[in-house]
């Protein structure tokens, strides 16, 4: 700068001073604007106290709301627990009620069966020997409680010694079948089949009753008689479908039987 001419140095200095003045002006304006903003946003002491109080009140309200919510949650949990207990008790009572209903139905059926049996026994005592039951004006013997099992011929011999013979089913004698079904139990040793007075011993394939009458209508199970291993005697299997209650069986098989005979005078 010292090598410059005096006029040029004066102009450069004036330019620098003008630039510095401009910078100071800009700084002054900026500081004024910033100060005004600070003044506008400045809060008084009263405002600060008021806001502090409101904040404290909001905090207290929040705490109260939280506590209320906790209490409500506890009450809800308690109610849910009581509701669960109530549901369990309702389920238990419903089960008991259903059990009682089933027992009542079972007892009612047993009472009806006992009434029918009592009537049969009462009439049987008048017209049939002890241990025999009167149904459809015929005396029947069912060895349900006996532990004896007999072949077809042994069963016939037993019935004949009692003055009767194996049962002849020449009609839809469903009462006999119903009696057997009502007196069956779940014991595996309980009889599952009973000899009847039907066989094809004399002529294979020609089924006859013991009195020589040829069978006209049978109530065979599906696929029966199939004559597997010389099955020449017929047995009754108690089942709901009377029309499929017969099977052919080997005559030397040991099983239960049904006897029948005419009653004493019915007058």
Q: Could you give a short description of this structure?
A:
By secondary structure, the protein is of the alpha+beta class. It is built from four helices and nine strands; from the N terminus they run H-H-E-E-H-E-H-E-E-E-E-E-E.
Write the layout of secondary structure elements.
Elements: H1 6-41, H2 45-127, E1 133-135, E2 138-141, H3 152-161, E3 165-166, H4 174-182, E4 194-199, E5 208-209, E6 233-236, E7 246-249, E8 256-257, E9 259-261
Parallel strand pairs: 4-8
Antiparallel strand pairs: 1-2, 2-9, 3-9, 4-5, 4-6, 6-7
Model description:
- With 267 residues, this protein is an alpha+beta fold.
- The protein has two domains: 58-127; 130-261, Mannose-Binding Protein A, Chain A.
- The chain is 52% helix and 11% strand.
- It has helices at residues 6-41, 45-127, 152-161, 174-182, and strands spanning 133-135, 138-141, 165-166, 194-199, 208-209, 233-236, 246-249, 256-257, 259-261.
- The strands form two sheets. Strands 4, 5, 6, 7 and 8 form a five-stranded mixed β-sheet that branches. A four-stranded antiparallel β-sheet has the order 1-2-9-3.
- The longest helix is centred in the first third of the chain and has 83 residues, at 45-127.
- It is rod-shaped, with a radius of gyration of 54 Å.
- The mean pLDDT is 78.
């Amino acid at each position: 700068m010292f090598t410059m001419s005096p006029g040029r140095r004066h102009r450069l200095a004036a330019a620098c001073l003008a630039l510095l003045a401009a910078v100071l002006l800009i700084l002054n304006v900026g500081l004024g604007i910033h100060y005004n903003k600070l003044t506008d946003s400045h809060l008084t002491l009263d405002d600060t106290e008021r806001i502090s109080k409101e904040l404290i009140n909001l905090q207290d309200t929040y705490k109260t709301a939280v506590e209320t919510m906790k209490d409500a949650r506890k009450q809800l949990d308690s109610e849910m627990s009581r509701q669960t207990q109530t549901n369990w008790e309702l389920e238990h009572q419903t089960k008991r009620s259903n059990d009682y209903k089933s027992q009542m139905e079972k007892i009612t059926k047993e009472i009806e069966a006992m009434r029918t049996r009592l009537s049969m026994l009462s009439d049987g005592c008048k017209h049939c020997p002890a241990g025999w039951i009167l149904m459809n004006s015929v005396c029947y013997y069912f060895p349900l409680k006996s532990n004896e099992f007999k072949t077809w011929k042994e069963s016939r011999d037993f019935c004949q010694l009692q003055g009767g013979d194996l049962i002849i089913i020449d009609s839809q004698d469903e009462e006999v079948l119903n009696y057997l079904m009502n007196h069956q139990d779940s014991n595996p040793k309980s009889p599952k089949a009973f000899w009847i007075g039907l066989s094809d011993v004399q002529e294979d394939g020609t089924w006859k009753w013991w009195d020589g009458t040829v069978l006209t209508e049978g109530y065979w199970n599906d696929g029966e008689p199939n004559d597997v291993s010389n099955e020449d005697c017929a047995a009754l299997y108690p089942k709901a479908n009377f029309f499929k209650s017969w099977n052919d069986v080997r005559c030397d098989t040991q099983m239960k039987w049904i006897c029948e005979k005419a009653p004493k005078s019915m007058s």
